[in-house]
Amino acid sequence: MTDPAEILRRGVLAIAREVSTTGGALPGEHELARRLDANRPQVRRVLAQLEQQGIVRRHQGAATTVDPIALQMTVRLEDQLEHRELLDRLGYEPGVELLGQERIELTSPLTEVLAAPAPAPAILARKRWTADGRPAMLAENVLLLPAGPDTTGGPDAATGSDPIDAGRSIFPLVEELWHEPVVWEVATPGVENVAEPHATLLGLAPGAACMTFTIVGVLRSGRRVFHAFERHNPAIVQYSVVRRFPEPWT
Questions:
Q1: Is the pTM of this model over 0.85?
Q2: pLDDT for residue 68
């Protein structure tokens, strides 16, 4: 069951996102408490947390405002986050569903990308994440399978179910199968005019622009074990890059 304090935080962040698009001010504590079915001390604690993060600015006797730049900085391209955590940071109720998975024999060009011999046994999983029930992201994950009794058997003959649950987060799944963690992701962003069926799955009109990521996961040993292609709904998540200037500053 979701913590009531977490529900309140998401509610305040949702209102902050709305306000940031108009340049207005947040409602007062009393109105926030009324709208979010909370009391003023609870709302005050959430606002204090958001103020520490720089997302809201509070001044005695003045309206509380939202800093849209600080709000965007909660989701940065250089940060590796589980998509559920990313959506949670933005104040959404995250969800994930496995649209399908299958065993495949991986061939060129992905075998070259992953530096694997062709054909290579792999599992293909299609997943979708939601934010407050709205489609947010789609992913097609291809995970190389190591040789061994736990990975070569395939789906159960009687039930058709696969002993490998590709609906799980890919990071603990990789560590379980390969016995070492993913320590690097090489993520290449792009833009795509999304076509069917992906447009419907993302809740976008065919031809609408969406952000894409092509990702390669690398183990501590340097071995490349998964490739992902992701499509992100720009109405849900916008990413920022924070660039530092070298000293001395002039």
A1: no
A2: 81
